[in-house]
Amino acid sequence: MIPPNSELNVCVLGLGYIGLPTAALLASRGIHVQGVDVVPQTVETINQGKVQIVEPDLDLMVQAATRSGKLQAADKPDPADIFIIAVPTPTQDDASGIPQPCIDAVLDAARAIAAVAQPGNLIIVESTSPVGTTRKVAQTLADSGMDPDTLHLAYCPERVLPGRIMKELVENDRIIGGLTPVAATAAKAFYQRFVMGTIYETTAETAEMVKLSENAYRDLNIAFANELSIISHNLGVDANELIRLANCHPRVNILQPGCGVGGHCIAVDPWFIVASDPENSKLIQQARKTNDYKSQWVMERIKEKYRGLDKKHPTVALCGLAFKPNIDDLRHAPALEIALQLNQETDATFLHVEPNISQHDTLTITPFQEAIQEADLIVLLVAHTPFLDGSLDSIDAPVLDFTCH
Ligand SMILES: NC(=O)c1ccc[n+]([C@@H]2O[C@H](COP(=O)([O-])OP(=O)(O)OC[C@H]3O[C@@H](n4cnc5c(N)ncnc54)[C@H](O)[C@@H]3O)[C@@H](O)[C@H]2O)c1
Questions:
Q1: Ligand 1 in contact with 160 (CB < 6 A)?
Q2: Is 252 close to ligand 1, i.e. is its CB under 6 Å away?
Q3: Closest Cα to residue 386, out of 356, 357, 350, 351?
Q4: Residue 10, strand partner residues
Q5: Lower CB density within 10 Å: C or N end of the chain?
Q6: Residue 211 appears among annotated catalytic residues
Q7: DSSP three-state, residue 91
Q8: ∠ CA 158-161-166 to the nearest 5 degrees?
Q9: What separation in Å is there between the alpha carbon of 321 and the centre of ligand 1?
């Protein structure tokens, strides 16, 4: 029997884009939340009521949660009723050419939990994970001396969209996969305390595969749009108009092409499926390759264009570095990769525009208005709202637009 919110103790491991909003939301419902992170600076920042990431409304919620004493951060877990694992699950390069999932942080978190877990505890993995991870967490707990049969383990993938996390944490439907039906039911009872969407129960393995399939589905469909955009260019057809018109069909919904696919989810998670069955995942592999190829193709078009200008050493404004419009996140961002690679070229000067960040480690950031006044060629890589304010209409320099808006 799980106690009421005011008597419930939840420990969230990993205080990034997923863990911190979850911890703050739970604290706002009167639950005692301990947030755990391995980065001391993150723990310190949160205990001061501040945030280390940009997400609408998160700062106010964390401030209120720490002020009320309901949220406290630490570097290792204390005993709790429920543990939520929201740590990173990146890929690592492999000699096979297929990036392999790395679940080291999930298993480290499991070992930290094993040191304090008690029979009856509910342990939930939220990190996007290859199929079999929740079972490996149970094995890790067993290897650490816990009897996993005395614990309830469930996998509950996170589906929130950056920029809307606080809203979607509450409103989205959730999939809950239990290692046992009892674990799934216990996890569902927990999520029902703050989720308004429908909660579906299944097995841990199915829930793990559902999350990966969702992101592979997006990647595949974007690859189709990117492929169409290249073919359209070669045929002299406007890809944006083509897609708009094709989407008038009642059963067609082609996604938007761009300069590649980035971010830490869609560009990464399909590899988790591929790594588990390379022989039978050819379509998923091809989608990854097609989306990566689109960035190379965009880069070649930019070079071709500025080399064709009537100027020996032109100035090129590269507008947008983030992995999608109106965010500051540069993780796996194709526009950033394009900018970094173009900077190796010596026959042009590149100006980098990214209105959502003030500085970058290696690139100098130029304000949009200044860049478009100076440039001999303007390249739109990301459709950030400030680029679409009409300023480009009065500029003489040619514009290469790889966005869909
Ligand atoms: N960000 C998203 O939009 C999103 C959406 C859906 C799913 N996910 C998945 O959620 C998981 C977390 O992603 P994120 O974006 O929050 O990552 P993040 O990098 O923003 O945050 C992860 C945090 O975990 C901490 N950490 C690492 N190892 C730890 C450990 N052993 N114990 C405690 N803390 C540890 C890191 O210091 C970091 O602060 C990933 O699996 C990701 O794929 C993310």
A1: yes
A2: no
A3: 356
A4: 33, 82
A5: N
A6: yes
A7: strand
A8: 80
A9: 22
Q: What is the average per-residue pLDDT within 356-368? A: 94
| Cβ 14 under 6 angstroms from ligand 1 | yes
Measured from the Cα of 157, ligand 1's closest atom is 7
3-state secondary structure 275-313: HHCHHHCHHHHHHHHHHHHHHHHHHHHHHHHHHCCCCCC
Give residue 16 CA to ligand 1 midpoint distance, Å: 5
The ligand 1 atom nearest the CA atom of 127: 41
Residue 281: the pLDDT is: 98
Tokens of 169: 């944490």
CA-nearest residue for atom 13, ligand 1, is 88
DSSP character at residue 28: H
| Ligand 1 pocket residue status of 54, Cβ below 6 Å | no
Contact partners, residue 157, CB within 8 Å, separation at least 6: 126, 128, 175, 207, 208, 210, 211
Q: Are 27 and 6 in contact (CB under 8 A)?
A: no
In whole angstroms, what is the distance from residue 402 CA to residue 383 CA?
9
Q: Which run of H or of E encompasses 219?
A: helix 204-235
Q: Tokens 């507008």, residue?
A: 319
- Residue 344, judged by CB atoms within 10 A of its CB (0-12, 13-18, 19+), counts as exposed
Catalytic residue among 188, 211, 294, 324: 211
Helix (H, G, I), strand (E, B) or coil at 253: coil
Q: Report the nearest atom of ligand 1 relative to the CA of 53.
A: 20
pLDDT tens digits for range 277-316 = 999 999 999 999 999 999 999 999 999 999 999 999 999 9
- Would you say residue 405 has pLDDT above 80? no
What is the band of 53 on the pLDDT scale with cuts at 50, 70, 90? Answer: confident
Query: Angle formed by the axes of helices 204-235 and 239-246, to 10°?
Result: 120
| CATH numbers and ranges of domains, the chain | 5-204 (3.40.50.720), 219-401 (3.40.50.720)
Q: Round the average pLDDT of the chain to a whole number and report it.
A: 96
Count of residues for the chain? 405
Residue whose CA is at the smallest distance from ligand 1 atom 20: 16
Q: Which of 156, 265, 294, 319 is labelled catalytic?
A: 265
Tokens read off for 404: 């869909």
pTM over 0.85: yes
| 43 touches 86 (CB < 8 A) | no
How deeply is 1 buried, as exposed, middle or buried, from its count of CB atoms within 10 A (0-12, 13-18, 19+)?
Answer: exposed
In the annotation, is 259 catalytic? no
